[in-house]
Amino acid sequence: MYEPTEKKSLTISDVMNAYLRMVERSRSKHTMLAYKNALHVFSEVLEKKSLKPEITPIENLTEETFSKFVDYLNVYATATEQLYLQAIKGFFLYVDSERLIDVNQSRLVVLMRQRSRRPGVRIPQFPIDEIEKLLDKVQDVENLTVLADSEDETANAKLRAYRDRAFLLTLADTGFRVHEACNLRRGDVDWNEGRAVIIGKGNKQAVVRFTSRALQVIKEYLSQRATLDGSSGKQLSSLPVFARHDKGAGKKVKPMTPTTGRNIVKERVDQFLGKEMTGKITPHSFRHYFVTSALCGTGNLRITQELARHKNIQVTQSYTHLSDEELDKAYHDVFEKGVSRKSK
Fold first, then answer.
1. Can you name the residues that pair with 197 across neighbouring β-strands?
2. Domains and CATH numbers, the chain
3. Cα–Cα–Cα angle for 238, 239, 240, rounded to 5 degrees
4. How confident is the model at residue 108 (pLDDT cuts 50, 70, 90)?
5. Residue 269 Cα to chain centre, angstroms
6. Over 90: is that where the pLDDT of 165 sits?
7. Against a cut of 0.70, is the pTM above it?
8. Residue 84 pLDDT grade (very low, low, confident, very high; cuts 50, 70, 90)
9. Could you tell me which residues are beta bridge partners of residue 189?
10. How far is it, in rounded angstroms, from Cα 57 to Cα 35?
11. Residue of 116, 58, 118 lying closest to 92 (CA atoms)
């Protein structure tokens, strides 16, 4: 908490920087960057109101500036608008918690509800048939092995083939986000129970379950990597489940980055489905596939929410929308067949 003598000398910019440092400690890097962008836009609004953040004392900040900020965001996409509003609402609550100004929290919520637009529900779109075709192809590891010019590169190519198969099937069968899969360590996995305890979205602990298929291909990949892992000089439990196998990694066992994960998907989509599918299937497409499969298999929205680790059940509900083909069939079954029966 700031001392009273310090409070008078603090500018809006000073407190913004302190707020960002707090966000950086408690949230993901992606969230911190988004909040930083929001504060930049908020600073533009303050400038227009002759409240330059670098020289304006924090006590000159009022809820009226939040109201102006809400109106200013109408030029942005609704999803961006909602994200930035959450960031600046958090900033006002932070200022209030530090007793720098008094904030009517209820008024902030009312302003957001009354003046901001609500994003429409987007139905997740992904090519399910193509994903299943890709998964069928990668299950045969020989399909993934690429011929190489040198012995070392041949060994790496073989490791990449086993890794890519395990990575893609794991994404499809677990619902991992790409960064979660890349951060997974061998010690995180309970091989007997078929589950892993991870730190997921929002830095929250979560349990992820594995199919026997996913566990099997991961074990086969790690078996191929046994010599490399054994010579690493590190405890096996500390090593990544999915490692890099390129010249830059050399003989070290380094974890994959999300960029590598995205490249794996792109390369294998190009290889098996053709370049026309490039960009249409991403690592997150496999998460959509997982959630849809869970919902269709269980028929239970609440269970699917837990398996998908969705904080808000409305996100899970977006997967319940049926395709036009499904609706056409249902309509035909109910009305056309019903009419035929009645006419007999």
1. 207
2. 4-115 (1.10.150.130), 128-320 (1.10.443.10)
3. 120
4. confident
5. 20
6. yes
7. no
8. confident
9. 196
10. 21
11. 58
